[in-house]
Amino acid sequence: KYYAFQLNAYDFGIFQSILEGIINHNFGYSSVVGFYHFGTHQNYILFLIAPIYNTFHSAATLQTIIAIVIWLTAVVIWFICQFYQLNNFYCFIIILTFLLSPMNGLDNNFMPETFLPLFFSLVYLFYLQQKLFYYTIAIILSLSVKEDATLYILGFGGFLLYSKSYKYAIITILFALMCMYLNLKIIQPYFVHKSHMLEPTTLNYWSQWGSNKSEIFINLLTHPLDIIKQLFDSKSGIYRLYLPLLLLPFFVPEVLLASILIILMFATSNNPTIHSYKSYYAITLNLIAFIGIIKIMSDLNKYASRIKALFLIALVIFPLWGTGWQNFWYFDYKVFINYTYLENYLHQNQLKSQKLCPQSNLYPMILASGFATTTFDNSGYYFSKQHDCLMILTKYGNLYPFNLQQVNQQILLFNCSSFKNFYLCTR
Predict the structure, then answer these.
(1) I want to staple 249 with a disulfide (CB 3.0 to 4.6 A). Which of 11, 185, 289, 361 is the partner?
(2) Residue 356: beta bridge partners?
């Protein structure tokens, strides 16, 4: 995906630019969205990633981190399988299905949310092994990923109360509530105010319930029937994730309780991507569903092998429901070499002080190359707005939010120098 220029400023560039901000002492700011993004999402995990990114300063570093995290999650799933005494063949099929499932939703894109399945699976594993110290560390790491991790952890705390594991339940719920208070009362308001905004931008995804957090919360509590209707409407993501699994994960208490708050949150959103579990939104729900599958397979050990075989077949078919298996991209390495000629030209001509406006799919690479003045107009129309920019264009790769015709028009309209597949343009 890196060599095929399939990365873009949304969402990859948002978190990459926050990392650049951490390195350059402007913490929380994203040049993609044009405000302090920590007012929208509290991704403390970026503090741990920043030193690695700074050492290996490349967009490919972030993709490599995500790939390692996904593989580590598979390793933890293996240990969970072993705890439940599934044979190696069943464990292999479960892990293979997990890795290939499009419900991971990332296509090797850099999203902090990718860390949550890893940390939550560690939470579950250390609970099974009754290792309280490591369990606590895994809880803290989970809460560092994103603000909605508190809902997963609170839900799991509910399961711990249900299972009478009171010591673990108290630690879990206490940390979740403390993190929720920190996010909602301190960190989020600070960065929202610093961005000269009134409310976080994500509240728009629940705007039908109110104009602020209090209104939305009260209206949700007082309209349970409306929530149920949205939960089971035709576009709900629960069908995409759970129906192929015959809703069986819901019969596993830890799966149901750890997932239910997020399921309700997604169901009530007016954002079709969230509501339908597309993109990366279902990645942690997917992991928790696989935990449920492991428990069910363990319970099936007492049944005939034919039943288990049919269940495995259904599991393998699961990724084909909806969007299919994970995608891979063709790339021509010669095109990437041509890009390096452009990048070398920018360095040799000492253009670090020049304001650069790269096309969306070039933004991650240009930003990582040390051009601190790299900017991006999130409206998608920076060609007509940025008069003082040196524009960097290409016809290759993911051209979103433009199409090939629009890119060709800009190349004809402006004064452009060609680097084969890439263009350096001025007015």
Answers:
(1) 289
(2) 374, 390
